[in-house]
Design brief:
By secondary structure, this protein is α+β, with helices and mostly antiparallel strands. The protein has a single domain, classed as Gcn5-related N-acetyltransferase (GNAT) (Aminopeptidase), CATH 3.40.630. About 40% of the residues lie in helices and about 30% in strands. It contains four helices and seven strands. The mean pLDDT is about 90.
Length: about 160
């Protein structure tokens, strides 16, 4: 089932930080279970204090309630997360489409163990650019760098 009434609006630190960091944690516990609950809980503080405030973040809302977000560092997707209960309904696609409209081309890195996300990006038209065997903290979690070159390569459906 696709949700059509998704509104995308700019991030508001005063009202969104706690909600979005909660969405991040819930989605990460599913997508990045291999990292471990303790590490993810610790990283939530970084999401609140560093990543959300420093990025250009857009919030997907249904009936005024945040259900997902995308954080951009220029044309790099620092993170895209949708509340688990809302996944599979087209919200992620809408966020990517919004970012494409703003930036024209996008890149990102994703854990290769997050197979659902890798499939999602591939279906949308992202192409693999490179891989590295460790994550940003030097832990042995392989990452793949993907790039989507322009609106014409984006698969909306």
């Amino acid at each position: 089932m696709k949700i059509q009434n998704v509104v995308i609006r700019p991030f508001d630190a005063a009202t969104d930080t706690e909600i979005l960091s909660g969405i991040w944690l819930d989605a990460s516990l599913l997508a990045h279970a291999f990292i471990g609950k303790q590490r993810l809980a610790e990283q939530r503080q970084l999401i609140k204090t560093q990543y959300l405030p420093k990025a250009e973040t857009w919030v997907a809302c249904i009936k005024g309630e945040p259900v997902g977000f995308i954080s951009l560092l220029d044309s790099f997707i620092g993170g895209i997360f949708v509340a688990p209960r809302q996944q599979g309904q087209g919200i992620g696609r809408k966020l990517i489409s919004h970012a494409m409209g703003l930036k024209g081309a996008l890149s990102l890195e994703v854990y290769t163990k997050n197979e659902q996300a890798v499939r999602f990006y591939t279906v949308l038209g992202f192409q693999e650019v490179s891989r590295r065997p460790v994550d940003d903290q030097g832990l042995p979690f392989e990452n793949v760098r993907l790039h989507l070159n322009g609106q014409s390569n984006f698969r909306k459906d």
